[in-house]
From TrEMBL:
InterPro entries: ATPase_NBD, Hexokinase, Hexokinase_BS, Hexokinase_C, Hexokinase_N
Pathway field: Carbohydrate metabolism; hexose metabolism; Carbohydrate degradation; glycolysis; D-glyceraldehyde 3-phosphate and glycerone phosphate from D-glucose: step 1/4
GO molecular function: ATP binding; D-glucose binding; fructokinase activity; glucokinase activity
GO annotation, biological process: glucose metabolic process; glycolytic process; intracellular glucose homeostasis
Keywords associated with the record: ATP-binding, Glycolysis, Kinase, Nucleotide-binding, Transferase
EC nos: 2.7.1.-
All residue ranges annotated as the Hexokinase N-terminal domain in the record: 11-210
Entry's family note: Belongs to the hexokinase family.
Residue ranges occupied by any Hexokinase C-terminal domain in the UniProt entry: 217-455
Record flagged with keyword Repeat: no
The protein's name in its UniProt record: Phosphotransferase
GO CC field: cytosol; mitochondrion
Amino acid sequence: ISTSLSVGRILTNLENSCATPLPVLRHVADAMAEDMRAGLAVDGGSYLKMILSFVNTLPTGNEEGLFYALDLGGTNFRVLRVQLGGKDKRVIDTEFEQVSIPQELMFRTSEELFDFIASGLARFVQKESGKFSPARGRKREIGFTFSFPVKQTSIDSGILIKWTKGFAVSGAAGRDVVACLNEAMERQGLDMRVSALVNDTVGTLAGARYWDDDVMVAVILGTGTNACYVERTDAIPKLNGHASSSGMTIINTEWGAFSNGLPLTEFDKEMDVASINPGEQIFEKTISGMYLGEIVRRVLLKMAEAGSLFGDPVPEKLFTPFSLRTPDLCAMQKDSSGNLEAVGSILNNTVGVRSSLTARRVVLEVCDTIVKRGGRLAGAGIVGILQKMDNDSRGLVFGKRTVVAMDGGLYEHYPQYRRYIQDAVNELLGDEVSSNVIIEHSKDGSGIGAALLAAANSKYA
Ligand code: ADP
């Protein structure tokens, strides 16, 4: 590629500082395992919170009956019911609905928000047809997936630490979100029991585990990122001997906060400083969907200003944060035409630039560099978790088939990213061990996972 001297120099510098050769991957995997141990030792012992999920019983496939799930994690909430038929019949029937939350409710009181959710749920329950059979003399049970930071206090209670993702609801922080939901259901005259409060990664793990006993880890790669895994209670010093009867529990790592030894650039640092949570969630800012497009935009802006990549003057839109989004990178990388027509029109539509063929090639190089770093670091993180589990169990993980359940829009839709995760896992573990590690897409497992956890933790069991 022939480009101006400074564009070439910026690209080379970028590639060098984003490089993830084996020693870097190994350092990240080792550091992830170390930080996990520190977080399990004492609360606050690590960047990784290693939150106890209180999920000590995983679905086995034997669950029977009608269960509901409610998923609140963003601008939509989803409700679902499932009729479970035990080992042979499995999922007999399932129905779900999605309701978008009116923008204005994100700025009102928590009562108003929970009333809106409870009334949607009540309407959904009313539509229950004869295909579903609630157990006589029992309340309907529901699993509640709530993807905001919660201090879990039991399987069916947890204190909201703070709203995130643009929610500015008043009055729920510091309160038990299950109590908030229960009170709203009562106001709606809806008689249900919340049997499990779960984080979305935990729901994904449970949903995948229902079909496959070898699922040990779940990872979400969407707008943000998180991971959870099955841990032995005797490997959790901060439990102070409060072992569960099953001897296991799911740990929600909150791995987005990891930051040890990541190959970062000036662009990452500037994006972090400009973010609403500077200094926090550095792993998330390097690997997740919300940020990959923005990092690329920042690189392109520098190339435009210092090296006239798109001619003069630099268009206004290229200065606008988040004008280039991760799905745009993905769409550009799909373009296999000779003159990169699609790359040109995406660049024009998103950041308002007109581009030469040479410039389009540079843009694709930048996308690949950032996506490659993200995918490979996510892969190293996964290996870190598996390595921690394997060391503690003296070879019980790598010596047998182990499944990592993946979900989230970034993982689902970005084939190059997915490939880079797998490459890093293969490089770190070698052919023999990595053939035992199955990284598998578990689509929308978290909804049904919450219903399964309500079943596994039924009040009537
Ligand atoms: P969320 O994480 O917001 O709950 P999802 O798991 O559906 O929801 O993930 C949505 C994210 O996935 C988007 O913010 C975007 O970063 C990423 N994404 C969605 N579609 C694509 C795509 N076609 N290519 C790459 N990334 C995508």
